[in-house]
Amino acid sequence: MTLGAPSGQTPSLAVRQTRGNGSETDQPGSYKCLKGTSFPAVADWKSFDKLKTINQPSMGKDAQNILKAIQSFSTPNQAILDTNQFHALILVQVVQETGGSATVVGDKGESHGLLQVKLQNHESPVSCAPSGCTYSDILKMLQQGINGHSGNGAPQAPGIGYWLGQTKGVGPALRSYNTGSVPDSSDLSVASEFSTESYVSDVGNRLNGIGVEDFPTKEWLRDNCGFKIPET
Known about the structure:
3 strands, 3-stranded antiparallel sheet, mainly alpha
């Protein structure tokens, strides 16, 4: 599930289109339509602390516990990121998937938690009491999205930590997390029917520092970048 600005809002963003090789054009500081294999270099990402400042105001009442829980995770084995970079990635994935709301249910009831994992039939989603989510609830949600869950070898529903160790680059790892594979290694916007074409591009732009209030709508992304609006 992908959240952007409220429907109907016209973002004050100049689109940055891509050339055939995925390179970028236009002015900095705007949403970049990342196509092909284009993805921001890790060295260009905003730091975790900077991304926290940008995103925390929009993340709701559980923001402090979410940020604390993210920082409790170590970088997965064989991952290509250092700890700060890994925490930055998880933070913007949480914002991308749910905006920081632990009660979002997506994909026609199949996806749950802060990172919107699809659970197997014998597993139960982590839920919060009516009084609110505890730190333990939030930690378990993140564990499901980062570490994956159940199965020998490759988890039946691999987490982003698994994909970072299996794929060559953050962009392919994100496409695998959202789609379950990389359908076209030459174009990371290619997705399955119920996945999000803009997923890799969206997360890349969030890593570059675009916050929720300045993020374009799904309709804007369709009209300006050519990304299909995903099924919900």
